[in-house]
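PT: before anyone asks, these are the final sequences, not the draft ones from last week. 410 residues across everything. Please model them as a single complex and drop the result in this thread when it's through.
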Amino acid sequence: MLIQIQERDGALQSARDQLEQRVDERTFQLATANKELESFSYSVSHDLRAPLRTIDGFSHALLEDCADGLDEAGRTHLNRIRAATQRMGLLIDDLLNLSRLSRTDMHRQSLDISTLASSIASDLRKAQPGRQIELRIEEGLKATADPGLLRVVLENLLSNAWKFTSKRASARIEFGMTPSNGTPAFFVRDDGAGFDPAYADRLFGAFQRLHAMTEFAGTGVGLATVQRIIHRHGGRIWAESAVDRGATFYFTLSEMVAQGAQQ
Amino acid sequence: MNNKVILLVEDNPDDEALTVRALKKNKILNEVVVARDGVQALDYLFGEGAHAGRNTKEMPQVVLLDLKLPKLDGLGVLRRLRADDRTRLLPVVILTSSNEEQDLLNGYGLGANSYVRKPVDFDAFVAASAQLGLYWLVLNEPPPRRV
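LR: through. Structure below.
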């Protein structure tokens, strides 16, 4: 009997040792992968933008120094080169910000998400004072989240709502909370251009765009960023829409259930 | 504007040409001395190597320092400058591509006076150079000259 127990203890101990060793190995692999990712984006940040500066700078120099030798077509070509170069600069910056989001520390705290939404909306109003926008923000909603990251989420969703209603003479944009299928979720709703639900699964991929660039500007990184932040908070994000019928973006943050119940 | 030298520490010849062009467009006519790696920059400032015999009492009005450089990198240069009494107070503006947090923290941590990210858009770069020139060559009072 005693020998059996001792044997079992021994087996348990060695299983535990093996597990610990495997955890150590995985941790090491993860740390290595993280470090590689970090040095990758570090060199992207330094090295990928430099050639763009050369292209833009010397296109500019050509336009100035060789103005006499350039006709209208030549100038148009050069301006296209410059526009594309600057766009690539933006893409690189957005991509770097996206990769930074996964690496920054998160500090959750309880905060008033309605106040946050109002302050972002008032910034957007100031940026485009001419727009007719009826804004409805449900008051007193609370969330537990990292304040900086949650701001990025709301900035992206609200400025999308602003952007995709820009072709309307007047627009309605809403922020609130709804019990969607029993789980309370925050939502941002607009009555703008919307999107074809057939492509909904592409919405949250980086550099995915459902509209032509001439129609609505953007790099296509915004919603990928939003989704990454929501996932880091243990929440979910999804959208409902139809073409020309507006769009609604829903999201949850973990611990939402308990909070929803309290309200 | 005075006639003091601007030391540009930059290894990329395209960036060098564009920086000089941007300064010229802003009528900044100070002589621009270019060092193409960190060692050249230190040689110039301390009057060593190719610059042996240079009067080191004459320091540049401002050093525009790139971070990614051959041999000794920008942070290495900054570390050496801040450790030496002759250059401890020399105004250094980091002028580089990245705005990675670690570069900003290290740059300021080692005693950079300013950190400017080079924009891709050349018009924005010209505007930035105008402000840099106005601030560091006209407005800013440099540390007193050593005797």
